[in-house]
Design a protein that fits this description.
The structure is a single chain. The chain is mostly helical. It has a single domain (20-171), classed as Four Helix Bundle (Hemerythrin (Met), subunit A). The chain is built from 6 helices and 2 strands.
């Protein structure tokens, strides 16, 4: 095992026991990936978090956290909770939306993490009170909440692959 990996007894993702049932399984995977995003960014400076990937992409770890805050807000607050009148996060940004804005500033980084954590906390509350069988409107089509949770798991998993590469370019730390 690489010395860049957390020992199993220190890895917060390994502290939960086995899951039982569909809800526990889906929520468990979603939480695992949320925690992994935090671990991928742990210990980095604002400049490192804002480090862009290879051109033409403008992706950075900080941009990824902003993007995931936007995704959490859109699916849980707007779609499942039904508040479609809420403007999507970073909608007012010019063109790049969430991925492109990555300032090298402690306050910006702190605000980004606060925003992401607030959206995750709201999503947890929505999910705790929502039946997985509930049907919501997704762009004019009915969709079960469970499908949205699976999509969220996929969204995190896909972007965490990007995060692995970004982090490895920054300081050599590889995925776990």
């Amino acid at each position: 095992m690489s010395d860049m990996w957390l020992p199993a007894d220190q890895d917060p993702r390994m502290q939960a026991g086995p899951t039982r049932g569909e809800r526990d399984c889906l929520v468990g995977y979603l939480e695992h990936y949320r925690t992994t995003l935090e671990l991928k960014c742990d210990g980095l400076t604002p400049a490192q978090l804002a480090t862009r990937s290879v051109p033409p992409s403008s992706m950075s770890l900080l941009g990824m956290v902003r993007h995931m805050a936007r995704v959490e807000q859109s699916w849980f607050r707007r779609v499942i909770d039904g508040h479609l009148e809420i403007t999507r996060l970073f909608q007012e940004d010019d063109g790049g939306f969430d991925f492109d804005a990555a300032a090298v500033d402690e306050a910006f980084v702190a605000d980004t993490w606060r925003l992401w954590r607030d959206e995750v906390a709201h999503a947890r509350e929505v999910l705790a009170r929502t039946d997985l069988n509930a049907v919501v409107d997704v762009h004019g089509e009915p969709s079960e909440v469970r499908d949205i949770i699976v999509h969220m798991i996929e969204e995190y998993a896909r972007h965490l692959g990007h995060a692995d590469l970004l982090r490895e370019c920054i300081d050599g730390r590889t995925g776990q």
